[in-house]
Model the fold of this input.
Amino acid sequence: MSFPKKFYWGGSVSSFQTEGAWNEGGKGLSIYDVRPTNEAFSDWKVAIDFYHRYKEDIALMKEMGFNFYRFSICWSRIIPNGDDEVNEEGVAFYNRVIDELLENGIEPMITLVHFDMPYHLVKEYNGFASRKVVDLFERYARVCMERFGDRVKHWMTFNEQNLHGMDLKPSNAEVIPEGMDPNQFLFQVNHNVFIAHCKAVKALRELVPDAKICGMVAYGLNYPTSSDPRANMIAALANDFSNNFHIDVFTKGQYPPFMVNYLNKHGWMPIFEEGDEELLGYTVDYMAFSYYSSHAVKAMDYANRDIREVIQEAVVKNEYLDATEWGWEIDPEGIRRVARDIYYRTCKPVFVLENGMSHRETLNENMTVEDDYRIDYHREHIRNLERAIEEDGVECLGYVTWGPIDIPSSQCEIAKRYGFVFVDRTEKEIKELKRYKKKSFNWIAKVFKSNGEDLA
Ligand code: BG6
Done:
C-alpha cells in the first residue's frame, strides 16, 4: 500500500470554464464576460453549462470514483458588483452543488478566485491595485465561509497565485497607470494579493477553525540543459523567482531574503501598510500545486539582467521529452521532483490540485474517444507521485486531475480537451452539450476506486 488510506482522488475546475449561465441567477458581470477572446475560439457565455447540468456531472464524477472535487466560486454570482449586496440566488446555487457533492460521497474544495472578479471592481478601483478591493475580497471570503463553511473544509484563496500576482497576464485585469514603473506596479499588486490571501486565512481561522486552507502555485520546473554552470544557475534562479518566492511567503510568513534583496536592489519593494507584516504571519496548512510539464533552460550570459527576461530567452525544447500539440512537454518524473522540492522546503503536506494532458479529439463511430495517450500520461504521473510518497517520504494529500469533464481551455479553446468525458460542442456550435465517456473514463475509475493500486 503506497497511497495513504485517506488519499484524495478527483477533479478540479474553475467557475468561468464550466458554469455558463453568464447572465442568470442574479449574477453580475465578471471580467471574463467582457474580455475579448481569440476570434477562432469561443466566448465564456455557455462553457459546458454546469450551472444547469451539475447533477448529471456529479453523477459522472461519482462513477469515476471521485472522493474530492475542487471548484471555484464566481465572485460576481455571490456579490454581483463586488461592493453591493449578497445575491441569495448565487448562494443557493453553490449550496445545491455542495450538497449534491456530499450526497455522492465527494468532498468539496472551494477556490475563492480562479483568475476572475466582478468587472465593476476593475472599472471602479483597478482591481487589486487598490487596497479597497483587498477589503472587498475579505468581505466576499467571509460571506463564503459563513455560508458554506459548515460543509466545506478545504479552502483556497487564489488559484495559482504566483501567476495571478507576478504576471499581469490576460487572466488578470489590472491596468498599469500611465507613467508608473510597470514593475513597481506589478509587485504592489502582487503584495496586495498576498495581503488579501492572508486576510482570508485569518478569517477562516476565526470562522471555520476546523477547516484547512492552502497556498497554490503553478509550479514552473526548470532544468538546466547541460552541465554548463550558467544553465544550472539560471534554472536555480528561475525556480526561486517563479516558485519559491510565493511558497516561502505562504509557509514562512515573510518575504524570503533573495526576494527582499532583488526588490530593494531594483527599487521595486512594494509599500507595506501598517499591520501587513503581522498579516503575512497567517501561514497555510499545506501547499497545493498544479503541474503539467517542465521547462529546459540553456546556458547564456545573465549577469546584471532581470531574471524574468533571462527565463524568456533561455527556455528551449527539451530533446528528451515529447510534447502535446500545444508544446507542453510531458515529464512524469517532474511531478516527483516538484512534490519533493516543495515538501523538503516547507515541511508542510503537498497536494497535487491540477494535472492532465490536453489533446484534440472527436468522437469515433462508437461515440467514444480512444485516448490511450491520456491513460499513459496519468499512469506515469501517478507512479511518480507514488515514488515521492513511498521512496522520498513526501506527505501528499491527494492527486486531483484538471478538467475531468471537457471544458474550454484558459484561452477559451474547447478543442484543447483534458477530460475523461467528452462534451459534444465545438468553438462556435454549442449543440446539445451531451456527455460521452472516453476510454480513459473506466481506467481512471479503476485507479481511483483501488486507491491507486490498479494502474494496469
Ligand atoms: C491552469 C489553470 O493554469 O492550467 C486552468 O488553473 C487552466 O484555468 C489549466 O485551464 C490548463 O491550461 P490551458 O491553457 O490548457 O487551459
